[in-house]
Write a structure and sequence with these properties.
By secondary structure, the protein is of the alpha+beta class. It has helices at residues 30-38, 107-111, 117-122, 148-163, 189-199, and strands spanning 2-4, 11-14, 25-27, 52-57, 62-66, 71-75, 82-86, 91-96, 103-106, 127-129, 185-186. It is built from five helices and eleven strands, in the order E-E-E-H-E-E-E-E-E-E-H-H-E-H-E-H. The strands form two sheets. Strands 10-3-4-9-8-7-6-11 form an eight-stranded mixed sheet.
């Protein structure tokens, strides 16, 4: 199955879709919100509370077919996870941590060619986490941090990933599995704090999913 950035210069193939995937998750953490703010893609929040939709895959199941020169890597802090986007059209691609059997692919690359792909494959978003960082009222059904529902949907995926060493072969890192294929940009603390302050100024809006769809 193919995913791509909005303009099509960056393309990738996903193996074992959707059999080796835990489904759709929404994260409301301040880091995910800050990242979309930085790359000017707050239009991709799933709701007015600042949720970011992620559909995880195993690193070994992803391969790029074109456009890797368009990848840009950002870290919100020196120890932050590696956040990747396509600089040709500012499409967020994935959040990655080396050695971890999880690539958190943003929803947007899945639905550029077929806006109903995720709905038809997985149904609605089933789990929302880190609701304590939600802007305004926390959506119904979203956990303050992590809850059993999120654990139940992701633990088998992660356990299988660790046991079968599915973190190997990540296309975001060189052969050593640690060195990113693009030099990361690390945000200064002052800019990170400014971006978070600016989040409060964003007009409340509703996008693909309303909070009530997370159940």
């Amino acid at each position: 199955m193919q995913i791509r950035c909005e303009c099509g210069q960056l393309r990738a193939e996903i193996k074992h879709f959707p059999s080796e995937m835990p489904g759709r998750l929404a994260c409301y953490c301040d880091d995910c919100q800050t990242y979309l703010m930085h790359i000017k893609r707050t239009d991709l929040f799933v709701d007015g509370a600042g949720g970011t939709e992620i559909v995880p895959i195993y690193p070994c199941n992803l391969s790029f077919s074109s456009g890797t020169e368009r990848l840009t890597c950002l870290r919100l802090s020196p120890q932050g996870i590696f956040r990747w986007s396509a600089n040709c059209c500012n499409t967020p691609i994935a959040n990655v941590q080396p050695g971890f059997p999880w690539i958190g692919v943003f929803a947007r690359p899945y639905v550029v060619e077929d806006k109903h792909r995720l709905d038809n494959t997985f149904g609605p978003i089933r789990s929302g986490i880190m609701g304590k960082f939600a802007r305004g009222q926390k959506p119904e059904g979203v956990a303050d941090k992590l809850d059993f529902k999120a654990f139940r949907s992701t633990f088998p995926f992660l356990l299988k990933g660790f046991l079968l060493r599915k973190a190997k072969g990540s296309p975001f890192f060189h052969g050593d599995g640690k060195t990113p294929i693009a030099e990361p940009i690390v945000l200064k603390k002052e800019l990170r704090e400014k971006l978070r302050a600016d989040l409060s100024k964003i007009e409340r809006h509703s996008r693909v999913h309303s909070p009530s769809t997370i159940s």
